[in-house]
Each structure stands twice: as structure tokens, then as C-alpha cells.
Amino acid sequence: MRCIVSIVVLFMMFFPCLEVFGADKVSSPDEIAQEKLTAVIVPVGERDPSLVDCKTSKEVGAAKLGESFKVFFVDSPDRNYKPGVKVNDLIVSDFARRYPVLINDRVCISLQLKNKGWKEEGQWYLSSWGEKEIIKALEAARRDVLKKVSNLKSDECFLLTSPVDDYMGYWSNNQLYLVPLVNDIDHFKAGTAYRAEEIFNHIY
User: What does the domain layout of the chain look like in residue ranges?
Assistant: First the structure.
């Protein structure tokens, strides 16, 4: 009996991420994000509230997650965009989720998860956190668009990253729209929705 117990203990030591009598335990990204908020972000913020854009540790204790953004990136950015190219062919999933961390509905910082297997199902891990300016602009863009575009759902808004800028994207009437998160000195205004073709044609 002691031998069996010892074997189980050793197994758990060498394979801590596995269940003893089963396959990998898979949790949803929302569950993992909540765990990381509680175990990582809140303790760090309580020690130094400024790291999570707060003034007091009491504020940090009220932190909660907003709805996540799926993360996509622009494929083959070195290739010039040409009219007629389907923009959805240039958008590739990064298999990541970015969450706004909220305190009393105020966006403070972000928390991002990535999937270890580069797929929608599997193990998720905390890849980064912080980036308060980007997540504040991203969430502001989503809230504004949801007021203006009928039948658009919150989880249909996503983050698009590119070598040039970051955008909030959404589909409406089979058209992809992008909202720049920062001002483009030459052309595009932050917070304003543009057809994706306009932006791709200018950038690429």
C-alpha cells in the first residue's frame, strides 16, 4: 500500500498539470482569467496599487473582469494589399483573449491569455498583463460602437494587431470595420470606424 501511495505522489510531482487518473484538466479561458486575476493581479496591486492604475489597495480588492476580446493579427504584412483581396483572408487568429480589468466599471489594465496549443480548445496561460492605454481605448471603442451599430454583440468585437497599429474590429452587413486605437497623423482618427479596405490600402 505504501508503495502505491509513493508511486502516486511521485507521479503528481513529475506531472503536476495532469490528473492522476485521467487526461489533462481543461478549463475555459474565462475560468483561467479569473484565477489569474485573483492569484496574480490582485496581490500585486495590493502591494503597489499604481501597477494596476489604482490609488489604494482597497480599490484593487474590487477588481473584476470585463468581457474578453478575441485577438487576431494581420497575416503577411509585407505583402501589399490590393483592391479585390478579401480582407478576411488577411486576418488570422492569435488564439488569445484579452480581458479588461474593471474597478467600478472603470477600465484599469488588461490581462491576456494565450492557448498553448494554438487552438480554441486546450490549455490557456497568462501571457501578459498591463497595457492600460490600449485596453482603455479598446473598451471605449467597443462601448461606442455597440451604441451605434444595431444587432452587434459585445463578444463580436475583437482586437486586431498589426506591425503598424492596433485596432478594434467588428463585422456589420458582411463588411469588416476597423477602429484605430490611436490617431494616425496622416489619415485615421482614433475612435472612428473605417472600412478595413481603406486602412489596408493606406498601410499596405
Answer: 2-203
What are 64's strand-pairing partners?
102
| pLDDT tens-digit readout, 166-196 | 999 999 988 999 999 988 756 888 999 999 9
Q: How far apart are CA 98 and CA 131, in angstroms?
A: 11
Closest CA to 40 of 60, 58, 15, 54: 60
Q: Which residue has the cell 484605430?
A: 180
Convert the pLDDT of each residue in 97-144 to its tens digit.
999 999 888 999 999 999 887 555 668 899 999 989 999 999 999 999
DSSP lists the bridge partners of residue 107 as 102
CA 30 – CA 51 distance, rounded (Å): 22
DSSP string, 50-108: GGGT-SSHHHHTT-EE---EEEEEES-TTSPP-TTS-GGGSEEEEEEEEEEEEETTEEE
Protein fold of 2-203 = prostaphopain b, domain 1 (3.10.500)
Rg, the chain, Cα only? 20
Residue with cell 482569467: 33
Total-model pTM: 0.80
